[in-house]
Design brief:
The chain is of the alpha/beta class and 341 residues long. It contains six helices and 17 strands. A hairpin with a 4-residue loop joins strand 8 and strand 9. The protein is globular and about 65 Å long.
Length: 341
């Protein structure tokens, strides 16, 4: 199976640069995975497609304001540090810029000295291990000094950082938002609960590997990135009950989908668990747990368009994407949504 099998033409103007004023005003392409039939709706109409007993699984990971702009000491130039993963003891694996200036031993300062750091080592892939020094609570300092690490295809400045967080985000740890959830409002979630839909969380901390392109011609040669995820006991019980009783499990986003499929037993049941996953889902994969998926529109030739193609069929997905382009849907993180049912 070739990377180019998942290519589609996308005009640059359809890449959404800013979120809509109202979260649930985004458009919703509803795709029937069996027939390939499509409907064009709005996200606030989602309740029309759900029913009592459905189990809706959300990723409650919260994006770290992980982009830090500082200066090299003594009297050096401007440098950028992007936090990727917490190694413990104040040490983080980071993406740094300019890489040729930030060698081991380099000292940095941020926010007039409220936060300082030293580069300790270079690691595989060119990243750095950086030890931070500070007084107080690190997350509170990040809230003051850090910026949202927006995807590279978004060039507009984000006025309200909360618009790159879901309304239900809770567990800090992501370097990018689980964007399918950005369409939900608290009112919409309350409406679903009042209908009898079970809403439950998992956590997958999204890494920047989610934006790493597939470069290999044969997709089976692609090395998938790893991400940390958690299935809490109440979610494991709710999903297991739903599968045993023949009720639908609907994942919100590819991150929730990957978490469920990583930890599900062959019968779709789930145990409370945490750990790393590098699951790569592409056409031919047999889903154990997820019946339906709410998702955004993904980059051409990405692992994410391969995942949705596994669920709905590659031809159905490419036909739906062509229809979305023709109707000028908004694409990617701040773009419109799709329900695969």
């Amino acid at each position: 199976m070739n990377r180019t099998d998942f290519y589609y033409e996308l005009p640059q103007r359809l890449i959404a640069q800013t979120p809509l004023e109202r979260r649930d005003a985004s458009r919703l392409l509803v795709l029937d995975k069996k027939s390939g039939g499509m409907e064009h709706r709005h996200f606030y109409e989602l309740p029309e497609y759900l029913r009592p007993g459905d189990c809706l699984v959300l990723n409650d990971s919260r994006v770290l304001p992980a982009r830090l702009i500082g200066r090299r000491l003594p009297g050096g130039g401007v440098s950028e540090v992007l936090l990727l993963s917490d190694r413990g003891g104040g040490v983080w694996e980071c993406l740094v810029r300019p890489g040729n200036k930030l060698r081991p031993g380099t000292e940095l300062t941020f926010g007039d000295g409220a936060l300082t750091a030293v580069v300790e080592a270079a690691v595989e892939g060119g990243n750095r291990l950086v030890r931070f020094r500070y007084e107080g609570i690190f997350l509170e300092i990040l809230e003051k000094l850090g910026e949202m690490p927006l995807p590279p295809y978004i060039r507009e400045k984000l006025r309200d950082p909360e618009r790159y967080q879901t309304v239900y985000s809770r567990e800090y740890g992501s370097a990018a938002a689980p964007t399918a959830g950005l369409h939900f409002t608290r009112e919409l979630l309350d409406r679903l609960v009042s209908m009898g839909v079970t809403v439950c969380p998992v956590t997958l901390h999204v890494g920047l590997g989610t934006f790493r392109p597939v470069k290999e011609d044969d997709i089976l040669d692609h090395r998938m990135h790893s991400e940390f995820c958690i299935v809490p006991p109440e979610t494991a019980a709710a999903v297991t009950d739903a599968k045993r009783e023949g009720r639908r499990v609907i994942a919100v986003g590819t991150t929730s989908c990957r978490t469920l499929e990583s930890f599900a037993a062959p019968d779709g049941s789930l145990e409370a668990k945490s750990g790393w996953t590098d699951i790569f889902i592409y056409p031919g994969y047999q889903f154990k747990c997820v019946d339906e998926l709410i998702t955004n529109f993904h980059l051409p030739e990405s692992t994410l368009i391969m995942l949705v193609s596994a669920l709905a069929g590659r031809e159905n997905i490419l036909r739906a994407y062509r229809a979305a382009v023709e109707r000028e849907y908004r694409f990617f993180s701040f773009g419109d949504a799709m329900l695969i049912r």
